[in-house]
Amino acid sequence: MMIQIALRAPNGQSRIQVEDESTLSDLVALIKSKTELERFTLKYGYPLKNLDLTPASQSSSIKDLKLRGETIVVAPIDTAPQTPPEPPKPAFVPKGIEPDETSLDWPARGGYMVLRVMPDDNSCMYTAVGGALSIPNPSSFLRSQIAEYILTHPTEYTAAILGSPPQKYCSHLLEKDTWGGAIELSILSDLYNIEISSIDVKSLRVDRFGEGKETRIIILYSGIHYDRIAFALDLSYPVDCDVTKWDTQDEEVLTKARQLAAQLQKMHYYTDTTDFVIKCEVCNWIGKGMKEAGVHQKETGHKEFGEMTIQ
């Protein structure tokens, strides 16, 4: 019988198949061929733990190791001392946050809690969640799934809950410049049977969508923007090597994520939506806070807003 195993390595993410009667030695050889690495450690599970690669364990069968369906993280072992590489710079870092302020050392687990900054394109929530779930091009795909879910659950998602008739809400939802929020997060939690823990930078409050499920992903909310929180064995590894799912019994990972959020809070990595000055990019209207912006949107249909900095 073939066993499916996912690999996360510096050269990207892939999937391999091995016979359940194969040995650990066979698996190591296959990983060497797949990753073109000679020396490495292997980690798996929630939380990550080392796979024993000592000679005495090489004859263990894959079936006995219970690796079916697991994701194995491949961490290279340097053969010679090297100058540590600079952390990769995020594509979008608002409010002047430096790249080295978007990670938190986690020696106990041999890596870092990191902030993966999402593009500021009105689809940040979908990109943050979709990336954690390894969904390619998540914005249009997740929007369509949510719209279908709303329309097929009319007694649950009424006009009173949505704030507008379901058909109108979904039409608006499908537009690429429409933001996602609590309703969409709750639906995604049901669709993917996963808890979505959203940490608010300003208050450090954790909002849990889908509480009671077995697996969790973590996102960060900074007032008008969502980012993703992940675990990286090394800051030089590509995003494909990130760990983005954890067992919901693992409260330590949520504590560490809040510590990262607290670090960002000190740098004022958030927007106070109650009193920030906002400008309509269509007609140059200027107002205060998301509430006034919402009224302006309903009155005019304008949906493109930007935060103004008052000198």
Automatic annotation (TrEMBL):
EC number: 3.4.19.12
PANTHER family according to UniProt: HIV-INDUCED PROTEIN-7-LIKE PROTEASE (PTHR13312), UBIQUITIN THIOESTERASE OTU1 (PTHR13312:SF0)
Skewed-composition ranges (Pro residues): 82-91
Name by which UniProt lists this protein: Ubiquitin thioesterase OTU
Location of the region described as Disordered in the Swiss-Prot/TrEMBL record: 78-98
This protein's GO CC annotations: cytosol; nucleus
Keywords assigned: Cytoplasm, Hydrolase, Metal-binding, Protease, Thiol protease, Ubl conjugation pathway, Zinc, Zinc-finger
